[in-house]
Structure formats: structure tokens, C-alpha cells
Amino acid sequence: MKLLSQLRTSSFQLALLYMVVFATSVFLLLAFIYWRTAGFMTAQTDETIEAEIAGLAEQYRGRGVNGLITIIRERVTRDPNAKSIYLLTTDDFLKLAGNIDSWPEGARSESGWINFTLDESVGWTGPKRLARARIFEVQGGLRLLVGRDVDELTNLKRVIETAINWGMGITLALALLGGFLMSRSTTRRIEVINNTSRRIMNGHLSLRIPTRGTEDDFDQLAENLNQMLDRIVYLMEGIRHVSDSIAHDLRTPLTRLRNQLESTLITVDDEEARDHVGQAVAEADQLLATFNALLRIARLETRGNAADMKVVSLDELVSDACELYEAVAEDKEQSFEQSVEQGVMIEGDRDLLFQMVSNLIDNAIKYTPEHGRIGVAVRREGNDAIFEVQDSGIGIPDDEKDQVFQRFYRVGKSRSLPGNGLGLSLVSAVAEIHQGRIILTDTYPGEAKPGLTVTIRMPAYTGESKRIKATQAELPASTAPSRPTADAPET
Questions:
Q1: Which tens digit of pLDDT belongs to each residue from 395-406?
Q2: Which domain covers residue 19, as residue numbers?
């Protein structure tokens, strides 16, 4: 899988493109060399044959047919290796002189050139060889063939072709290897940037992308990203300072106002006035709950994996939450079903996980009408721990499923119900800390009330925790946030 991922990288594809261009250039160069070399040797052979033909023609003009026969026999005698091929016949193909006995059957061009094989079919007694010759007619009805043994030339061409093929193969192999090594080096540096970026997104804002000190493009990119991160952290610290100021300036007066209203509620005798004061207390509680939820979500999003990670029994945690909410479901005469597999363990913060589970169960009960159905399940699938909540409520339209995790976002059908639109935002923040993935689907697709199934897949605990140790080692003690307490579910 690692090799396949390496082959899909843009750096390897760029190296592969360069390899194709380079190999094409090498191929064209070698093809040109072969064409020039083979063409030169073939031209030399043809020139040698033409020179012999010119010499024989001169002998024929000076000495006649007998002189031509004599010179051919002399040349055959002086050439025991038969590098030159001769055949002189009458017009009815009767041999007069030469070192082959009959005319070869070969591919003959319009200019009279022919390529053939020296074998028994032409009266050749030696080993089979390749030859090239030219045929023309002599005055008096005679036919003359003059050629050369080109077996060595053909073998040399084959050697050159083999060398070119091997050269191309080695070139491609080296280019492929070089491209792989180059892309591997590039991919490693990109992966360092990606890994650091992912850890920063998970909340480790103190991390920075390492540089090699080479001042190359990657170092410049890393330095620019680090400067950008410094600026972002500075701005976030400013926002956090403003949030702390708001918490100090507004939360305390709101709490004091709420307490005063509650005290007033005790002393008021008029029933109508008591109702008004009671509504004011409820509104103050809603404001405080919203304010606390916002601060809690911001705190979770900024600290990331710095939560108090321990091995948690997810099945026991969900069972505790179900025991708490089962009575609430009974009050609405809802069917509350549980399917909890034993021994499902994960690494996480128990308080945050309990809050996430409680939020989802509370939402399912709240948005499911009376006599509806609530289903809670815990199971393990491979290396994933699954927590799932089903309901038969109003559901969420498909085009809004990706938006419900935004703060204050509420589905149109649920706007008349109490809530502040922060519950799923808090669930998303907790799931992200635990490397979870949230999937929203319809419980009963196609029906008027499709319901909603919320599935959260988190990595299951399989043995010794490396994640907890890595988290504790990476975070400076001065930046580790305090452990949050479990609050009431946010909806």
C-alpha cells in the first residue's frame, strides 16, 4: 500500500513525465545513430558492389565475353572466403562463371538490387549466409549478378539493435529508479508538513514545521507556514483574551441577576408576578447555558488531543447514560431499546465522552414524538468502536446534514422546540478530539418522519496506548489545559 501511495504522488508523476521525455530523447538519439551507422555501412556495401560492376563492365568492353568470364573466375579464385558473389549466365540461365550455380529468389527492386540467402537453393556449399547483389543484363543476352556477403553487416546491425534495446531498457530502469527516489525524498518532506499540519489541526498549536536549513523551496514554504501559524496563534490568543473578558464581565453579572430573580421569586406573593419572575429565571438560565456552551466548545476546539486521555469502557459509559435517560423516555411513552456489546474499549476523556453520549440521547428523546422509538447501540467493527443512536423523530433533510454541526444552526422543523443549536457542535468537537467520524443517516428513508441515526466511529483500544504517551510528551506542561467537568447536555 505504501508503494501504491508513493506511485500516486504528484512528485512521482512529475518524475515519470520527465522520464518519458528523457527516454524519448534518448530513443530518438539512438535511432538517429543507428540510422546513420547502418545506413553508412549499407551504402559502403552498395558502393563496393557498384565499383566491382564498373570494373567488370570495363573488362567486358575491352576483352569481350571471354575476358569477362576470365576475370570473374580469377576473382572467385582470389576470394576463397567468397566475400564477393558472382554469377554470369546465358539468357536461358545457363551458368558461364561464378561461385553460385543458380539465380536466387529474392526481393528485387526496380533498380535491380536483390537481398537473398546463400544456401543450397543457389548451389552454395558453405554455411548459410545473407547476401546483397545487383542484377543486370549484358549485351548479347547475358545476365550478370554481382553481390557481397552481408552476413557480418547484418550481425553487426543486430548487435547495435540489441545494444540500443538494452540501452533503452537500462535508461528507463534508471530513470524510473531516479524518479522513485526523487519523489520519495520529496514525498517525505511533504509528509512531514502534512503530519505537522494534521497535529496542529488537532489542537497542538505550539508545533511548527521543521526546516533543514538548506534555504530551498521547502524550507521557504515551511518558514512561511510557520509565520502564518504564529500570526494565527497571536490572533487566537487575542480572541481568547476577549472571550475571557466577556466571561468575566458578563457571566458573573448574569449569574448574580439570576440569583436575585430567584430570591425575588421566593418573596413574591402575586401568582402572575411569580410566573413572570419564573420566566425571567428560565431565560437567564438559557443565557448562561448558551454562554457556557460557547466557551466549552471554544476550549475543546483549541486544546484538541490535550484532553485527559485514559482507557474508557464505552459500553459501561453508554449504559450509565441510558440508565439516566431511560426514565425521561418513559415519561414520553417512548420505546427505549439498547444493544450494547460488552468489552468495547477506547482511549478518551470519560467526562467529555459522557457529555457527547448524553447530548445525542437527549436530542433523540427531545425530537421524537410520544410513542416513538429510541435505539442506542455500542459495538465493535474491526478496529473501530461504534456508538449509534437511532430515533423515529422529524429527522434532518439531506441538504442540511452537513450544516447541523455549525454553531447556532437549527433545522427548520425544530425551531419551535427549546434549544440553542449548540448541541451537535459540542458533539462534533468531542468526536474530533477522539479522532471520531460522525455519520448522519435516515432511520426510515422515504417516510414522512424518517427519523435520524447518528453513528460515531472511533478508534478502538487494542493494547498499549501510544497515543496517550505521545500526547503527554508533545504538550508543554504550561500549556496543558485543566480537565473539564461534565456539564448538562447542550441541545
A1: 888 777 777 777
A2: 2-154
